[in-house]
Backbone:
């Protein structure tokens, strides 16, 4: 480097540089054109076509001109391209060929010679002509100067010689030629660059190849290649300029990395000098020439070099309008530098690197801030956030180093450090509306106050930017740092805000370790704030954090207990249960599947205590509320009967249900199935990955119907393959509010040991209904209440109420009277308990007796039944013997009895109606044979229950001297009755010989008789085995009209002269009436009743006869049979004839008093008073005369 | 050579974190947790152009002076995070990829265990041992 350059300004602005061109020839001419040329050249872009297929760039070329001289020409090995003329133009105005030949030609020759000597081929000759109207009119121009020049110098490069009409003299006509000149200059200039740069690249490549040789220096190489970047920058091809710098960057980085494995080259050791200056980067467009010179002299430090290189890269990025890329590159750049310092083992005073990093960060950030349109902000925020954070980190480090953190006072040594660091930062650049990063850092390090202000500002900015780009976790991390800062600053309230945010973020995603560590910080804050409530709560949670060391947990546990012991009475702090306890299972203890009104509800809770020590639970309460869903109540009550035991036993079975019926269990919040129990497995949402897949077989057949493949497929794969969005599905951290605990199951004062605890909470069941368990609350000591969220899935219990009922039941068959019957008194205890010696009183209606079957006591009409102690929903059966008296039964009517039941739980007597079937009935008939009388008693069985009858007796009980002679067999077959089986008994009535006195008695008094028999039930109808016990049946009958008064005989005789009765011929009906006993009725009417199809009676069919005086009467009637055959005799009916106006006789007065009429009338006799001997007799009637055969078979 | 390996579930909760130096565990927890910011960022930006098969390897998530943090996300949104020391300049991108691929295979083995419920923290001793050996030997 020559001394000339050292005096130059330190900064070089490449933007201001323009390609350098020389002019030769007519200087005056050029000067007149120069300004126009300089001005017009960059106005239009030119296409820069380059070799090696590099992309064509559109370039605006500016130019600055210097007069041609040998000195300015580039020398071999000098590659400061931007300071070297790249293109050379010879200007002439010569229009006359002769003049040209004489002077100009030589001049050009010399000029070209010089160029050739320097191996320069980028030149151009411009002939400036004045527009000549005459000349243009010439048809055949002679050889012009231009032609001459071309033929002399540019036989190969015709385009290098150009004539142009002087635009100054004739503006209007020159435009075209001028434009031609400009584009020609641009093109040739660019091609000159192309050629030069290709050569230059070769040089660079050559240099690079030698990088491992002794004596090679990166610094020199850097400066060389940077020239390339300069040229590209000058031409406005910033991206390619950046590539040059990036290449250099990569090369250097590689060298540094290689020092790890190989030897450090000599040049690199120049960078390893101890760090003396740590001024930050300056992002400006200008090139810091001082840096370059230091570099050239190998006197630059690593940081300075890196800063310079990075600032150049940034300059290129800024020129391409990519501030975000600066931000993006900054952090890796800074990290890399810090690392390189490390690798190269460059010693630096403490804090120096931090200062440098801080300054760099701030410079980049300030640069970015200059671009404040939203698109850019969006683009760079992504990277600036971490830069802010990095700067903050560094400032914190510095603060620690210099004793500026709150709670510390800088020592004199630390103050000394500050001075040292401040000195190393160098001077701040003098451009400043805004304080430069250096100013800021100096200020921040100047005092604790300033430090705090800057630190907080940075932290806020970092957090804000992180939040803006959505990096919440990063923001929270800074927040935690900030919290620590605030805490040491003595502002725990502010710290709490940050910590709480961090806590919730970590909790949402289940980072237990982080949660625990954040809690510890929070606890410290609360302690400092003397916020006892929160402190105690936090202590509780900390002591339950399994992630922490036991001694820490114990310490906080002790803290909590201490505070809880000393707390003011009456304070109640509510905290979440789940932090300290895990509810493992809830089970409603149901005996026999039901809960009865007024009984004790017991709920068994299994809770895992996370506390490290035993805590005393003052009161555990489990709230419950009535479930309003009434239709479910039915389901609940049906479940109660028999289902719950199986469900209780079937814990695993339920989980099997989980597998098969997922949808039922997944969302069980709405109490689909009232559960009596749920465990922690049920409480967790079901894991879809654990669901059983429903697979079906699927067979593929080939065309020939043979099996191609057999697969198992899921019919509904979407259900299982559905992707659940992992975003926004964090664990909910909800605060639980205390619900209504007015109805709650309680348990008092019991210890909760670490680990599993089982306890039972109880309450009295009030009203019947379906209840759902709500929240669990555990009260520790007196003032800390831990509250769980509402249990889900819901656990329910049903309280039922059912009254006690008593029924009296018969057996399968009907109840029978007269026999001992079994009955069952059934007591259903309902929902209440029957206490021991509860007595039931039974009272029966008359004729019904009962007794306990087990008792040998006599049957009685009143019975007291003592009941044993009975549990709810049990049924008691009391066997009873019942006997309903068999009254004299003459028909089959049912006998009704009543049982009055009084029980202690009912105020009113209950009446139970019982119907007894009679097993048999007895009927009585009196039979007559002429004057003899027979009494018949028929015992008809009415029931399938068969009975054996014994000892039938008919005994007159009236005093008359009447004998009843039994005609019944005394031995032989057993007498058995049953349904449809009758037994008849017969007695002959033997009247005493009536005296004349007695004869006068108009009607004998009725005879009262009593029928008795013994009967016993037949147990077996096959063997006719009977019960031992026989029962007595009594029935009284009254015998009336037991004397025959008249005997009637009738006969049909053929008419005189004929032997036989013949149809159609008159016959005689002989009628004899005889009185056999005295009768008050002597006037009798007979009536002949005939079937009119058989008999025709001639004359009167009825007449009155009197037997007053005579014993007998004889009447003959004419009758005619109408048909032949055996015809029944016409029936003769005898009736009492009571003539009109007849005074009733004394004997008859009573009878006839009611029938005193003016008409004669008939009264029938009682059966047995008139005996018809001819009843049912038949007479043989021959057919009418037409018939030939007759026979005599008429019967008497 | 990695200093910390973490498996993060799809709900972003840690399923497994192993550090070479147990004393720094908390610090690494924070680092891994913070890296999820970038993972989410990358996933959401990648979600827009759902072309063909997504690259599971997310590359460098972020770096600090001391550490570089790399990420990898399976198709089921399980994230693997590997923290390496920045000073370890010999570690190339390819080696990090290999490390992740191995982790993925290991994780697959864990999930194939019928006794492992997906979503639970990984407690497999084999997994732990193998991860440790990956961290130490970088194989």
Residues:
């Amino acid at each position: 480097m020559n001394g000339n350059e050292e005096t130059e300004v330190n900064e070089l602005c490449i933007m201001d540089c323009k390609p350098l061109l020389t002019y030769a020839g007519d200087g005056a001419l050029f000067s007149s054109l120069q300004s126009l040329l300089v001005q017009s050249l960059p106005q239009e872009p030119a296409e820069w076509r380059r070799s090696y297929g590099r992309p064509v760039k559109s370039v605006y070329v500016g130019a600055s001109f210097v007069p041609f001289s040998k000195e300015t020409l580039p020398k071999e090995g000098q590659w400061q391209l931007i300071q070297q003329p790249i293109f050379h133009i010879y200007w002439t105005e010569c229009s006359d060929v002769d003049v040209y030949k004489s002077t100009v030609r030589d001049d050009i020759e010399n000029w070209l010679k010089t160029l050739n000597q320097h191996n320069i081929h980028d030149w151009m000759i411009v002939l400036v002509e004045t527009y000549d109207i005459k000349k243009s009119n010439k048809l055949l121009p002679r050889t012009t100067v231009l032609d001459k020049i071309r033929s002399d110098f540019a036989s190969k490069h015709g385009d290098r010689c150009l004539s142009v009409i002087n635009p100054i003299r004739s503006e209007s006509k020159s435009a075209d030629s001028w434009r031609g000149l400009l584009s020609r200059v641009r093109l040739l200039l660019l091609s000159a660059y192309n050629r030069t740069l290709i050569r230059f690249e070769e040089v660079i490549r050559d240099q690079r190849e030698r990088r491992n040789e002794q004596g090679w220096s990166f610094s020199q190489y850097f400066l060389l290649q940077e020239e390339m970047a300069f040229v590209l920058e000058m031409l406005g091809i910033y991206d390619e300029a950046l590539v040059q710098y990036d290449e250099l960057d990569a090369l250097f980085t590689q060298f540094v990395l290689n020092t790890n494995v190989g030897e450090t080259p000599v040049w690199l050791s120049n960078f390893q000098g101890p760090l003396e200056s740590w001024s930050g980067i300056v992002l400006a467009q200008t090139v810091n020439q001082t840096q370059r010179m230091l570099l050239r002299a190998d006197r630059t430090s690593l940081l300075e070099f890196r800063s310079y290189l990075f600032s150049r890269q940034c300059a290129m990025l800024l020129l391409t309008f990519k501030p975000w890329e600066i931000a993006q590159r900054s952090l890796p750049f800074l990290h890399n530098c810090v690392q390189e310092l490390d690798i190269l083992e460059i010693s630096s005073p403490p804090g120096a690197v931090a200062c440098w990093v801080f300054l760099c960060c701030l410079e980049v950030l300030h640069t970015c801030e200059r671009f404040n349109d939203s698109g850019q902000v969006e683009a760079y925020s992504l990277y600036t956030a971490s830069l802010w954070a990095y700067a903050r980190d560094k400032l914190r480090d510095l603060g620690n180093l210099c004793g500026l953190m709150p709670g510390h006072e800088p020592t004199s040594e630390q103050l000394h450090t500050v001075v040292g660091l401040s000195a190393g930062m160098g001077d701040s650049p003098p451009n400043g509306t805004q304080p430069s990063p250096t100013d800021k850092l100096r200020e921040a390090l100047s005092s604790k106050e300033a430090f705090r202000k800057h630190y907080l500002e940075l932290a806020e900015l970092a957090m804000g930017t992180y939040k803006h780009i959505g990096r919440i976790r990063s923001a929270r991390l800074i927040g935690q740092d900030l919290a620590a800062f605030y805490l040491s600053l003595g502002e725990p309230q502010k710290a709490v805000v940050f910590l709480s945010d961090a806590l919730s973020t970590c909790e949402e995603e289940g980072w237990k370790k982080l949660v625990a560590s954040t809690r510890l910080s929070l606890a410290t804050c609360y302690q400092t704030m003397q916020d006892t409530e929160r402190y105690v709560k936090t202590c509780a949670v900390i002591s339950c954090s399994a992630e922490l060391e036991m001694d820490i947990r114990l310490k906080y546990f002790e803290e909590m207990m201490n505070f809880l012991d000393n707390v003011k009475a009456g304070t109640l702090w509510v905290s979440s249960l789940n932090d300290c306890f895990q509810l493992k299972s809830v089970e409603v203890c149901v005996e026999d599947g039901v809960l009865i009104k007024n009984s004790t509800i017991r709920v068994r809770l299994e809770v895992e205590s996370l506390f490290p020590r035993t805590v005393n639970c003052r009161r555990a309460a489990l709230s419950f509320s009535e479930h309003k869903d009434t239709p479910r109540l039915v389901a609940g009550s049906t479940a109660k009967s028999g289902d719950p035991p199986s469900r209780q036993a079937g814990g695993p079975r339920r989980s099997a249900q989980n597998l098969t019926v997922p949808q039922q269990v997944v969302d069980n919040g709405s109490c689909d199935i009232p559960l009596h129990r749920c465990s922690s497995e049920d409480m967790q949402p079901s894991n879809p990955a654990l669901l059983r897949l429903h697979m079906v077989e699927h067979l593929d057949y080939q065309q020939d119907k043979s099996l191609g493949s057999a697969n198992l497929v899921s019919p509904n794969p979407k259900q299982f393959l559905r992707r659940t969005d992992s975003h926004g599905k964090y664990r909910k951290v909800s605060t639980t509010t205390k619900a209504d605990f007015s109805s709650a199951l309680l348990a008092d004062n019991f210890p909760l040991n670490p680990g599993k605890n089982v306890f039972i909470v109880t309450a009295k069941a009030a009203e019947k209904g379906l209840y759902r368990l709500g929240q669990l609350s555990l009260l520790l000591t007196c003032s800390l209440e831990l509250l769980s969220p509402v249990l889900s899935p819901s656990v329910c219990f049903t309280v039922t109420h059912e009254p006690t009922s008593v029924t009296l039941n018969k057996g399968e068959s009907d109840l029978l009277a007269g026999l001992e019957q079994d009955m069952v008194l059934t007591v259903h205890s309902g929902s209440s308990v029957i206490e021991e010696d509860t007595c039931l009183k039974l009272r029966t209606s008359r004729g019904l007796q009962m007794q306990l079957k087990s008792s040998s006591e006599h049957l009685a009409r009143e019975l007291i039944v003592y009941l044993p102690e009975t549990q709810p929903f049990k049924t008691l059966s009391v066997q009873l013997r019942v006997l309903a008296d068999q009254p004299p039964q003459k028909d089959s009517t049912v006998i009704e009895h009543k049982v009055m039941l009084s029980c202690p739980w009912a105020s009113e007597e209950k009446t139970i109606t019982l119907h007894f079937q009679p097993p048999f009935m007895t009927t009585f008939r009196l039979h007559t044979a002429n004057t003899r009388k027979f009494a018949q008693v028929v015992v008809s069985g009415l029931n399938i229950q068969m009975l054996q009858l014994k000892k039938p007796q008919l005994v007159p009980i009236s005093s008359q001297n009447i004998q009843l002679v039994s005609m019944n067999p005394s031995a032989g077959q057993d007498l058995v009755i049953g349904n449809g089986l009758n037994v008849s008994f017969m007695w002959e009535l033997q009247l005493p010989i009536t005296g004349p006195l007695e004869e006068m008695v108009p009607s004998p008094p009725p005879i009262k008789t009593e029928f008795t028999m013994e009967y016993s039930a037949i147990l077996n109808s096959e063997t006719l085995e009977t019960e031992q016990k026989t029962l007595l049946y009594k029935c009284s009958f009254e015998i009336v009209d037991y004397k025959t008064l008249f005997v009637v005989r009738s006969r049909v005789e053929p008419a005189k002269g004929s032997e036989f009765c013949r149809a159609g011929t008159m016959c005689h009906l002989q009628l004899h009436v005889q009185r056999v006993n005295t009768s008050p009725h002597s006037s009798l009417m007979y009536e002949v009743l005939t079937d009119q199809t058989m008999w025709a009676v001639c004359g009167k069919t009825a007449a009155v006869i009197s037997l007053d005086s005579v014993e007998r009467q004889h009447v003959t009637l004419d009758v005619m049979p109408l048909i032949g055959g055996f015809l029944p005799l016409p029936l003769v009916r005898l009736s009492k004839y009571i003539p009109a106006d007849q005074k009733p006789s004394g004997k008859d007065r009573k009878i006839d008093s009611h029938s005193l009429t003016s008409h004669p009338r008939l009264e029938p006799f009682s059966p047995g008073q008139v005996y018809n001997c001819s009843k049912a007799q038949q007479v043989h009637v021959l057919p009418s005369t037409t018939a030939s055969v007759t026979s005599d078979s008429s019967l008497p | 050579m990695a200093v910390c390996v973490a498996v993060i579930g799809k709900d972003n909760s840690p399923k497994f974190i192993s550090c070479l130096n147990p004393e720094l565990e908390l610090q690494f927890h924070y680092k891994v947790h913070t890296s999820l910011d970038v993972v989410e960022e990358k996933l959401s930006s990648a979600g827009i152009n759902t072309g063909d098969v997504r690259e599971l390897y997310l590359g460098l998530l972020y770096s600090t002076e001391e550490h570089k943090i790399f990420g990898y996300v399976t198709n089921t949104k399980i994230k693997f995070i590997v923290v390496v020391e920045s000073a370890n300049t010999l570690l190339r991108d390819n080696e990090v990829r290999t490390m992740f691929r191995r982790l993925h295979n290991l994780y697959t083995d864990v999930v194939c265990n019928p006794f492992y419920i997906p979503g639970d923290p990984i407690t497999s001793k084999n997994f732990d041992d193998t991860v440790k050996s990956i961290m130490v030997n970088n194989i």
